[in-house]
Structure formats: C-alpha cells, structure tokens
Amino acid sequence: MTEALPVPLPPQDEKSKLSASSFSVVSPHGDDYVSIDPAMERRIRRKCDVRVVPPTLILFMLSFLDRVNIGNANIQGLPKDLNLIGHRFNVALLMLFIPFILFENPSNLIMKRLKPSTWLSALLFGCGIMNMCMGFVNSYAALVGVRVLLGIFEAGLGPGSIYLITMYYRRYELPQRLSWWYCSGIVAGAFGGLLAYAIAHMDGIQGYSGWRWIFILEGLVTAIVGVGMKFWLVDWPEDSGFLDEEETAILLARLKQDRAEEATMDRWNTKRVFSDWKILLGTLMFFGIVNTNYSTNFFIPQNLVEMGYEAISAQVHTIPIYAVAAVFCLGFCYISDKVKHRYGFIMLGVLVGSIGYIMLLCQRSLPVGAKYFALFLLVICGYIVQPISVAWLMNNVGGHYKRAFASAAQIGWGNAGGIVASNIYFASEAPYFETGYGVSFALLLFTGVMGTLMFLLLIRENRNRAEGKRDYMYQAPEADNLGDDAPSFRYAY
C-alpha cells in the first residue's frame, strides 16, 4: 500500500457532480490540489469518528483488561493456589513483555500488507483464548508459559490500532482521538475492578476459585468480540468501505495537504528510519511514563489491600481512581488539540505525578485518605502524558512506512517500562514499597527530561528549515521519498 495522495477526483456525471461550493482547484505551486468545503470535511470527519475509532476503543479496552487483570486476580487467591512465593508473581508479570516488545514492530509491518480488520481481529481472538487458559493453569510454570503466549498476541494490538487511527486524521486531530483510545484503557481499569468485585462472589462455583473465573469470563468475552471485530474494524483509507468514492478522494486529499506532498515516504529507507532522533526520544519518553501506568494497573489493588482495605473492597475502590483519570485525560487532550501544543501538557502531567510519588514516598506520616489521593494523582499523570506523548511523535513523522515503524517502536520498545514496573514492587517491602515508588518517580522525571530535549531539538530544526539550511535535501537520491525529512515539513511542539 502506498500513500497515493493526492488522488484525482472521481469522474463527474450529472448524478455525482461535485458542487462548486464543495471544492475548487487551485495551483499555488503548479500542482492541482483540492480545496475542501468545511461542511463536507466535517461530515467526513464525523463518519471517521463513528466508524474508525469505536472498534479500536473496544479492542484496546478488552486487550488491556486481559493484560492487567492479573492484578485483580492477585488479591483473590492466585498466589496461594499457584504457590507464587518470592518474586514469582513479578516474573509472571515480566514474561508478558518480552514477546510484547519483540513482536510489535513485525506486527505493524505485517498489518501494512494485510487488511487491518483481519489481522487485529485475529490477534484479539488469540488474546481471549490465552486469557481463558490462565483460568485453568495449575502451576507457576504454566502461568508463565501462557503469559508469554498472551504477550505474542497482545504485541500488535496497541501499535496496530494507533497506526490505523493515524491514517485517517490530520496531525492536530490526533490527540483527541488518541485520548478516546487511551480512555478505553482507563475504562478497562475501572471495569476490571467492578468485574473482579462481581466475579469474586463466584468463588467455588464448579470447583473453581474466584480468580480463575476472572480470567475465564473476561477471556471468553474477548474471544467472542474478536470474531465480531472482523466485520466491525475498518481497513486502510483507500479501502475503507464506509466512504463513497467522492468522500474517499476528499479524505486522502485533506491528509495529503496536512502532511505536505514532500512528506510522502512510501518506500522503506532503513537509514532514515533508524537514525531518526525523534523516534528515539519519543520511545524513551514513553518508556518512562508507561512504567507509571503499569505500576498502577498491576499494583493498585495490592496497594489498597496494604492500606487496610479488604480484597473485595479494594476492587471497588479502584473504580473512582480510573473514573477521575478519564475526565482529566479527555479534558487535557481536548485542550491540547485546541491550542495545538504538546510539550507543556506533558510537563504538567509530570508535575502532577511527581506530587503523587513524593506523597507515597513520605506515606509513613500520612493518613490513609492522603495515600488514596496520591494514587489518583499517579493515574491522572499517566493518562495525561501517555496519549499526548504518542500523539506528539505521530505528529512529527511523515510517510506510511515511518509512521508504521514509529508507532510500533514507541509502544513496543517503550513498553520495556512494563518490565521495570513488574520487578520493582516487592512483597517484602509492603506496605511502603520504597523501591517501586522511588524507581517510578525517577523514570517519570526521565520522561520530563526526554520531552524537554525533544522540544528544544524540534525548535532548532524548524529554525534551520526556515533559514534554508536543509534545502540540500531536495537533491538527495530519494528526494521523492523524504517523509518528514523534507525541508518544507514543519514539526509540532
């Protein structure tokens, strides 16, 4: 698939003739392009919001729930039944991320060759089956093995969904849509606590413990929805199926205008992709914040138990945390879209999270209510910084191949933060978890440093391009395949 943008408008006859108010053809550089009527543009964008985003929200919500529901099972008897002594629970968490990191990039490159509806639905179905299998394991070794298989199927769902969304929207339309997408993860956290609370009462039915039913029932729902996803998910814009020929032409044209003709990169260029400092900094920035998100999703139920809540009560007390985080996530991503700015909101999230970590590191002198409030701050921080950091990188990479690689690299390699989160919260340090909170605080500050470095370098690069210092790229051997290296491309802050 190539970036065939802009495309010629469809032939006009008396039945499909485009009105003069819909478009005009102008040629500021000698090349025709489509001038789009705002009303028609809004109509197409609404169609995308209805057909592109909702299935990816459900897909991510279910896959994320299957990834982190082990945290809910942990306080319902899982460690006792499987003899998870010492650091065995941490290892079980860790093992998901090894295939998760290894297979995310290959998965996106495979999806580029296939229909997204086929690839993503197959992966989601596999996640559901593996999650059900976790409900039947009888040993630590079996749990680890199934977690590895779950990681293989999980690997392509996150970056694949983001990759698909980015192919339908302009740069400054992305953060709001990605905030909806990430909010589905927040819903998974809240819904997971509610489900775990309800399912915990099934303890003993058919001879299965309550934690087993958490995996079995949630996995069953995921598998069923995975089958339906084949018919609900959309494919690439050229073959979307929900837009007619005229609307498809306009969609492709508006994306082309947004990214600039020279931002096309429809041929793989290893050197240009792997030497891109933006992808490196975006991945490191994501690595730091994803540690906070996995720390909270895996260990908030356990943290609440250590604060004195009963297991079932702890499941319920996770729900308000995620509900409040959803409000902040949607609100700040919406404002970020409106003001067309990213860096300041990332640093605001880092500040909020820093306050939460400082409170928890000093929790010996704090009442339970203050500790609970600190958990709110951590989750709010994660769900402000994570979607905006992803949108920021996607705003600044041009071309199909580069966007596919960048989304997979940032989420795939960045998810190494999950490996760290899996191995820094030790039962022996309960209830204070100094190592866990201390390392997570350091990584959050690391995210702020990487974001600041990216901000300063983007400013410098835009200045160099404005002064003509990158015009020599027009003489490069692949001048028609520059992507965001094109001198006319301007980076977003």
From TrEMBL:
It is found in: Membrane. InterPro entries: MFS, MFS_trans_sf. One of its GO terms (cellular component) is membrane. The keyword Transmembrane helix applies. It comes from the Eukaryota. The chain crosses the membrane at residues 48-65, 85-103, 123-142, 148-168, 180-199, 211-233, 277-294, 314-336, 343-360, 372-393, 405-426, 438-459. Keywords: Membrane, Transmembrane, Transmembrane helix, Transport. It is a multi-pass membrane protein. Residues 1-26 are annotated as: Disordered. One of its GO terms (molecular function) is transmembrane transporter activity. The keyword GTP-binding does not apply. This is Major facilitator superfamily (MFS) profile domain-containing protein.
